[in-house]
Specification:
- By secondary structure, the protein is an alpha+beta fold.
- It contains three helices and twelve strands; from the N terminus they run αααββββββββββββ.
- α2 packs antiparallel against α3.
- It has two domains: about 55 residues, no CATH class; about 130 residues, Immunoglobulin-like (Sandwich), CATH 2.60.40.4070.
- About 25% of the residues are buried.
Length: about 260
Amino acid sequence: MSSTYIPSINQAATATTTAKTATSATTESVMGKQEFLTLLVAQLQNQDPLNPDEPTEFTAQLAQFSSLEQLFNLNKSMENLVTSNANSDRLSTLSTIGKEVIYQDGDFKYGGEPVTLGYQLDGQASEVTLALQLNGVTVRTLKGTELSAGNHFLTWDGLTEDGQAAPQGTYSIVVQAKAGEGESVAVGPLIRSEVTGVDLSGTFGGTLITRAGEVQFNSILGVHEKNSAASETAAAPDTPATGEETAATAGATDGSTTETTTES
């Protein structure tokens, strides 16, 4: 019985066989520890007795393979460590809900409630002012009394310079510091706000959602219990601040002054 050659079927069969051969060759081309030792033993067993191979060459090959294997194991261990740290950061992120965090940022969301703001000094200053701006317009200027190096805070009561309720929105903090004659000082804005939620997507612990805005977990400077003392009051709730009054000079209605706790 004669056979009939069908080009399309035979070409397909040839292509399939070639693909399987290529896949098998690729898999077999990767030498593992066992394959290396098998090859080494076979080479020793079949070497020329009258012209044996140098033992130092085998030793060097074995040492190189062992070093490579250790590098692969180390790389795998590092990957496991990174995964473990990421999971730990996520658990730490969840534990901040309901607490107050401190972080550096020049913008914050104002929703009608008092906001705790601050500034970070790297040296002694003679004067520090914080201008709170909405759409480029200064709504309120606060003055800090703590002028030493470190983190200092005050609470803005939400009033404008003329004692009116400030509009809600996203405010910018323009902080300026003056140093003594012949000296310089760097200053940066700080925000202290309660964490209301977390976003665990991304890396490095995710994102904290606070009343003042969002911040990366790995960017926070500290975590504190809610309402723990850390700020001076900009103005008493029933004593509107005037243009001359600042966060540093306002006191309670009974004449007593609020205390400032410096966080360093």
